[in-house]
Write a structure and sequence with these properties.
Strands 3-2-1-4-5 form a five-stranded parallel sheet, with helices on both faces. The chain is of the alpha/beta class and 244 residues long. The protein has helices spanning 12-21, 38-52, 83-97, 120-131, 160-169, 193-201, and strands spanning 4-7, 25-32, 55-60, 102-104, 150-152, 211-214, 217-220, 231-232, 238-239. The chain folds into two domains: 4-161, HUPs (Rossmann fold, 3-Layer(aba) Sandwich), CATH 3.40.50; 173-239, no CATH class. The chain contains six helices and nine strands. The chain is globular, with a radius of gyration of 19 Å. The termini are far apart. The relative contact order is 0.15.
């Protein structure tokens, strides 16, 4: 059955969701809310939607409080109030209108500390609210009420290294993914939290076994490179050019 809608930004998490949904993937949605990397995320999302053979719906949203998204060459989280809540709500509207049953978004364990709307309690709260709303006229028994669409976060118990490993196993080319909040001259900044997370996540699938943590970023003991600085072979697995 093809009944899943995935929020697709073209990064590690959302692309893995599309891979996991497999034949159930029916629709992908990309949100443009005037984020600095919108053009790059959109291009990546379009490419991956074509790869998976699924329609991509593009929606423009307006947010207040975008200040954290416009801090060039800075680390730390980029928290926008209610971002996932609004995106998930819009996706629910689209999913129900199209007769789909589930909305998937890429919340993961790495996000819990900084993003309240990526925590399991948020996912549970949204679904609790959906269960409290009658979805068909004439129903009177509360035990019979159930939502037509539910929200799932299949990666919510996974950390970045697990996500990267799953992507590598599926043969994804990491060069086709976009993971940067604030690109510089059309390239990833390598400084923002998204870049650092991607770089650190790739440690688990790199050839060298020895790593050092330097200012919050993993670097190889052999040559001092970060995960992002490695070439990716045809199977989607980075390899240190100095490794045997």
């Amino acid at each position: 059955m093809s009944d899943v809608l995935v929020l697709l930004s073209g990064g590690l998490d959302s692309v893995l969701l599309c891979t996991m949904a497999a034949h159930r993937l029916s629709l992908a949605v990309f949100f443009d809310y005037d984020q600095p990397a919108a053009a790059f995320e959109r291009a990546s999302a379009i490419g991956w939607a074509k790869h998976f053979g699924v329609e991509l719906v593009i929606r423009d949203l307006e947010f207040e409080g975008l200040g954290p998204m416009n801090e060039p060459l800075s680390g730390g989280p980029r928290v926008v109030p209610g971002r996932n809540l609004l995106m998930v709500a819009t996706a629910l509207n689209i999913a129900e209108a199209r007769g789909l049953h589930e909305v998937w978004y890429g919340a993961n364990k790495d996000d819990w500390a900084d993003y309240p709307d990526c925590r399991p309690s948020f996912v549970q709260g949204v679904n609790d609210a959906l269960f409290a709303l009658p979805t068909a006229p004439g129903w009177s028994n509360p035990m019979d009420l159930h939502p037509r669409v539910i929200v799932r976060a299949p990666l919510q118990w996974m950390e970045g290294h697990e996500i990267a490993s799953r992507l590598a196993e599926s043969g994804v080319d990491f060069d086709d993914l976009w993971s940067c909040y604030e690109p510089v001259d059309g390239k990833p900044c390598d400084v923002c939290a998204s870049c650092v997370r991607r770089s650190n996540a790739m440690v688990s699938i790199l050839a060298p076994a020895s790593w050092d943590m330097v200012d919050g970023v993993y670097r190889t003991a052999c040559c001092g490179r970060t995960g992002r600085e490695f070439e990716v072979n045809g199977h989607g697995s980075p390899k240190c050019p100095e490794a045997p």
